[in-house]
Amino acid sequence: MAIDASRSATPDGAYYKDLNNEFNKFEGVWKSTDGNSELTIVLQKVEQLQVRNDYRDYLIGEYKYIENEMELINTIPPIQDINTETHNIGGGYIINSNVSIPCDDCTPNERRLDLYISDPERDYLSASIVLRYLEGSNPEQMTATIISDGGGMIPNENSPTELRVPYGEYLMVKQ
Fold this sequence. Notes:
Layout: E1 15-16, E2 28-34, E3 37-51, E4 54-67, E5 70-74, E6 89-95, E7 112-117, E8 125-134, E9 141-152, E10 168-174
Parallel strand pairs: 1-4
Antiparallel strand pairs: 2-3, 2-10, 3-4, 4-5, 4-6, 6-7, 7-8, 8-9, 9-10
């Protein structure tokens, strides 16, 4: 079945396949540089990964964030284990322009990806990263919007309440 098929109407063991290879354009190394900050994201497509009772095509990844020449987080070792629990970026939900983060300048049929992003030192926080591939850009570009999902149980009153990479939209260039 197609990757964007309804999850509630399918039997256990279904395979949600990226039939049109929509994930492929997001694969690779992406970089955003803005003043004194730099975000690098590495994404890889994994096919037929078992997630709970189903199988899906999935994007997995890692990231690095530098601010004022200081590396605040780097989770980018070589991606070798395709277990989704070990990666700090992952998912495969295709969303339309009016879902998650509204997209006023998206075309009516434009589809974006909604993935999770986690900070290993702040795993109690819940956050998403919405990817939008910018068709026709040269060099290839996408936006990556990192948002809080509003969930999480803070361990104590002194615990940070945000990821080490700031929430917001980043213009990413494929390397």
